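Q: Sequence in, structure out?
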Amino acid sequence: MMASLLNSICRRDRGESIAGSSTLLCDVGTASFERPLGWDARKTEWPTLMLLTPADVPRDLMTRMISIDAARPEQKTADVTAVDFAMRYKGILLPDSTELDGEPAYWVIANGELGKFQPTHVVIAHHKGQAYYILGGSSDRSDMTADVEAIVKSWKWKK
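A: Exactly. Output:
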């Protein structure tokens, strides 16, 4: 995976969100997205573009996190990368694809092992020679769909 950038930067946007307050844009170098409500960007020693954790939960009590990762793809297309990921994590590739700012993207849902942080709600896309992963994971099998989906909907590639 690519080296950490702040693991990147989150900053206030001058635009207004739907609720009327300013949004917090997170920048991962090649793209930006709105930080999901209730989540904070955290520093990490892991080789990831960005790690998000619940804002109101101490690190030692965390049961959920979202990681934004990128790597040189092992497969030629995002759908094959997603199938490979689903097989690796004993998950399923959802039949309907989505988009990550115009790029085809694919959802994988996996049942992580209780008590271990493992990806459970993942969106995978390819862009300019890299595979991008938005990985929602939990140690208690929390539903991460809405939080991952918020990132997907606000994702913008840099030109």
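The first strand starts at residue 9 and ends at 16.
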